[in-house]
Amino acid sequence: MKKISLNVNGKPYSIDIDMRESLLEVLRDRLHFTGVKQGCSVGECGACTVLIDGTAIDSCIYLAVWADGKSITTIEGVSKDGKLSKVQQAFVDEGAVQCGFCTPGLVLTTTAIVESGKKLTEEEIKREISGHLCRCTGYNKIFNAVKKVLDEE
Amino acid sequence: MFDIVNIEKPDTMEAALRMLSSNPKLKIIAGGTDVLIHMRSGALEEAELLSIRDIPGMNEISILEDGTISIGAMATFAQINRNDIINTHLPVLSEAAVSVGGPQIRNMATIGGNICNGAVSADSAATLFAYNAVLKLVSSSGERLVQIGDFYAGPGKVKLLPGEILTNVLISKDDYMKTGGCYIKYSGRKAMDIAMLAVSTVCRVEGNKLADVRIALGVAAPTPIRCSEAEAYAKDKEITAEALKEISRLAVKASRARDSWRASKAYREHLIEVLTFRALKEAVKRSGGVELE
Amino acid sequence: MAYEIVGKRETRKDAVAKVTGKAKYADDFFERDMLVGKVLRSPHAHAIIKNIDVSKAKALPGVEAVITHKDLPNILYATAGHPWSLDPEHRDVADRLILTDKARLVGDGIAAVVAVDELTAKKALKLIEVEYEVLPFVLDPEKAMLPGAPVIHEEKPDNILGSAKEEIGDCKADFKKADRIFEGVYETSIVQHCHLEIQSAYAYVDTDGRIVIVSSTQIPQIVRRIVGQALGIQWGKIRVIKPYIGGGFGNKQDVIIEPLTAAMTLAVNGRPVRYSLTREECFIDTRTRHAMKFYVRTAVTNEGKMLSLDMKPISNNGAYASHGHTIVMSAGGKFRFLYNYDSMNYEPKTVYTNLPAAGAMRAYGCPQIFFALESHVDDIAREMNIDPVEFRLKNLVSEGKVDPHSGIVVRSFGLPECITKGKQLIKWDEKLKKYKNQKGTKRRGLGMACFSYATGTYPHGFEIGGARIVMNQDGSVQLQIGATEIGQGSDTVLSQIAAEVLGLPLDMVHVISQQDTDISPFDLGAYASRQTFVSGAAVKKAADEVRRKVLEIAAKKIGLSIDQLDIKNARIIEKKLKREICTLEEVAMESYYDPVDAAPITSDVTANVRTNAMAYGVTFVEVEVDMETGRIEVIEIYNVHDSGVIINPQLAEGQVHGGVSMSMGYALSEQMLFDPKTGAPLNNNFLDYKLQTIMDTPDIGADFVEVPDPAGSVGQKSLGENTTISPAPAIRNALLHATGMPVNKLPLTPQKVFENLKESGLL
User: Fold this and answer.
1) Chain A residues contacting B, CB < 8 Å?
2) Residue of C213, C207, C210, C199 lying closest to C272 (CA atoms)
3) What is the mean pLDDT of residues B166-173?
4) How many CB pairs under 8 A join B and C?
5) Cβ(B146)–Cβ(B134) under 8 Å?
6) Which of A88, A96, B121, B253 ranks highest by number of CB atoms within 10 Å?
7) How far apart are CA C307 and CA C505, in angstroms?
8) Does residue C459 have a cis bond before it (omega within 30 degrees)?
9) CA angle centred on C742, ends C740 and C748, rounded to 5°
10) Beta strands across the sheet bearing C273-276
11) Which residues of B fall within a CB distance of 8 Å from A131?
12) Burial of C398 per CB tally in 10 Å (0-12, 13-18, 19+)
């Protein structure tokens, strides 16, 4: 066991972890942030995406020991004061959600794009969210949701 | 859970080298996007890891006094893709970097890891071959420089000696100044994929002649390769579609493609010819040469 | 009829739960002392297990139990998610054990370990010693039917799981009088559902001694029954809970992991055990889509009228029956509703091979059969020099068609209008002219394909749905349904139906999303695009009853008859004068608290839907073919559907987008590959199995022609599965148009197109 300190969704945690664990496992099994989803375990589907210091990564292939001293945002930390973020609201309004399993990761990646303040072409938007597989939506409404938030910014 | 028995996380290069020389079983882990997947598949068991993420400065990208561009081994592909030095002087590397996996992978995976992993499909490799990159390898007994072409030993194998860490990728001014190039990654889908075939071309155009042409291929042989016969033929040729076609035909000669379930030998060889032509045509255009039909 | 809430783009009921990460899936529940189950899988495609020694594994610290077939009841059971049949002839084939005594595919489950954590369980698996007698194996169904082929199940010595011959009319005579006869062979590949949430379940024994299973399933009631059958225990001793699920597409219309999960908890005295598959395991030991090969012949007149069709499919079922022969039979029952033939011969065979078991997958055999049919029809039209659209229009069925075998009647038929709309959307005529005589590296092509599909399974299967409504004091209701929300949006559309009937705003319908076999009304689950139709009929019936009860109280109160009253926006209205009588809340309060007549308003109903409604649609697509590399790029694609009344256009569009995307993968890139030398999977992960990414997916056009069907409770017909049937043949036909080259085997990968270009001399 090894002690690490990390901040998740604005709250500090100091916890004992097993060095063999991925960040995904620590977030889900120890801290019960179950909005972090496991879809493939090899960084190919994006369901486990979280933000580390604002950058989107696949938490299934990120060792938990690396998270020591880092700030992590999971889907549970996106809405503030019980109010959906603009990104979440756009996903709801545009019908970008079906089974919902890819949704947390996509909302987080989109949040990181919005916060980067970058202006993106449609092709670049697609590229920036291409690290997420979705089997339900054919991506059309997801793209519309992301574009809507970026256009509003 | 990964089958790990120990992880060292040194925060200086000296400490890392010391640990590495005292424990030869230590496996270096950089971004983790390859090593952890190997571990999960059972290819690496009871691992003792040396994580080099905490060593400061290992991801720096800079231009040295003599104009050489130095890329820290821990630079991620996202960082490389967005870096001004890279985009100004090594645009083909930026193109290759953004073709790696998906955005989250590019935020994690490092150029050093990509090289040391030895994958024949490594997206950075073909382009680094085309830029004549030199690798700086450091150990407790000193440092050495190796041409990237001499570093690859076979599929998944590189000549990293025990106790060594790859710290920098160096590209000298002569190899990138006044060049234009193009990277074509051919894969089953447009994101989140590995190359079925990769072609990287770098060239320098003088007037309507090809002053220098470098062609590197990925997934065309057991290691990334340069197409020396095609390059030699290309030297000082007038830029015409026929010349580029002939160069592309010669590029196939360097390959040692084989049949696999991912692609047949025949198809790979055909792709080498077609894609080399396309990459050359684009490289010529980007080097200020004529735009061919 | 004009609707207030049906037909509106209402927001999904579960959207907020899903964007905030609050929606809990099977893997998101934690119990104290939860153990982990893992399975030892066969490395051989076909082998007898001569001996298993688990002693070393059992001795490993942290291992709580190790089980093999010897520890379990020797009961063969069937896994398909069909309702139980009282008729033994009509039941699914029972051909498997929870853990097998003979390996029939690489990955077959041999033994299971229950341990304190995953790594310990994995280590224990390595300590299990298995002695195999390796047998020859067979992957190709045509080879599996040859004399001397390896026998996969002793009960079926010829490896034929099922076969049939259905003849309508006189084929022989029609082929004799035909002006022209066309023949073709068409093949599809093995693909998988790829729901993002992998199968996962956990089970424990509760204080009453009953097994509780929380599982990612489309069919909780059927899971309960099959776990009972597999373990040989009373069905009432089992409780199945279905939380949110991350997609199913038919793979969770099969009972795969639950019997073993139940066996695992029984092996550790009822302690909770979680059994989740990895993605790699999911590819090999859940279900796949049957690869099918079709031998097709058509008799045609010089005028382009198709007289007779002769179709002989061979369906590759893999190692275990699952839905088995039902799939090719079901597809055979649905495709007959597209064209008018005077006669037809349908002769399918379903064959065991040493591959992962094929089962139900979105549209249940129809993506396969329509790939064959619609490719073949295009080939005929091309040979006869007739525009493929015109050729189809000449041969379509019409409203009133009755199928002689099933008795199903076509009561609404919007397909011709769908075709007209699709033609306009893609600018068919204009582009046909433009793309004549193309030269050069990149060539464009147009293609189209149609389909017919049923709604639910009647009359082959039986179709009941259950719904329960409880009205609260404020006039809002809880809607409880047995139908399962799996991402497709059934909770929302069923709520819309309830809200419509009850005159409630949608936010006053509280739908209970979780199904629990102890609590929820009995319903068969999510499959066959049945819910809006079958469960929708139950919801309509339940809401009608509540509405009647409400109006009775109101009518009595003011001395009018219930026919004179209506409910609008939670108020009781006198229809004629459009006058508000009272609020719904007042009525509801009386129902709870009237000292004399108090009886809270509820309903609890079952609808037994003994009818069907044929749905239709068409895909129009434009592709660009790289004549040097063989890569096909989809430029524009439109699906136009006749699915009756669309209850929620936003959700319906979402179904179309997802179905088209799935079919594009089917057409272009997806296939499961196996090593011919070992039978081992080559690409059972998300890197090597090429699911389309957002960058591979164009804008997908979704449109509808709404002809209300009299059989639908609000005029609705099926949609969910329909969307994934016609894009693949349309893309294949567009390649044909662009290059003149028919490629008859899916997927149309660049290498395959390249090889065909070479053979055709185009390269």
Assistant:
1) 18-22, 25, 41-44, 46, 49, 55-58, 61-63, 65-66, 109, 127-133
2) C213
3) 98
4) 45
5) yes
6) A96
7) 53
8) yes
9) 115
10) C63-68, C109-115, C35-41, C273-276, C200-205, C211-215, C238-242, C515-516
11) 101-105, 191-192
12) exposed
Distance from CA of B26 to the nearest CA of C (A): 21
- Give C469's strand partners: C479, C603
Q: What is the pLDDT of residue C612?
A: 97
Nearest to A102 by CA among B16, C178, C168, C693: C693
How close does chain A come to C192, measured CA to CA in Å? 11
CA dihedral sign, ordered C454, C458, C462, C463: positive
Tell me if C196 and A32 make a contact (CB, 8 A cut-off): no
Judged by phi (left if over 0) then psi (alpha if -120 to 50, else beta), residue C475 lies in: left
Chain A interface test: which of C13, C18, C281, C485 (most A C-beta within 10 Å): C18
Determine the distance from the C-alpha atom of residue C18 to the mean position of all C-alpha atoms in its chain, rounded to a whole number: 22
Sign of CA dihedral C13, C15, C21, C27: positive
Handedness of CA C727, C733, C737, C740 (dihedral sign): positive
Are the Cβ atoms of B261 and C751 closer than 8 angstroms?
Answer: no
Q: Average the pLDDT over C487-509 and give the result.
A: 98
Q: Which residues contact C577 (CB under 8 A, 6 or more apart)?
A: none
C-chain residue closest to B193, CA distance? C687
Question: What's at C721, amino acid-wise?
Answer: E
Backbone angles phi, psi at C102, to 5 degrees: -150, 125
Nearest CA distance, A69 vs chain C (angstrom): 24
DSSP B191: S
Asked if C9 has any chain A CB less than 8 Å from its own CB, the reply is yes
C427: number of Cβ within 10 Å: 14
pLDDT band at A153 (very low <50, low <70, confident <90, very high): confident
Angle, to 10 degrees, between the axis of helix A140-152 and the axis of helix C649-668?
120
**pLDDT tens by residue, C349-395:** 999 999 999 999 999 999 999 999 999 999 999 999 999 999 999 99
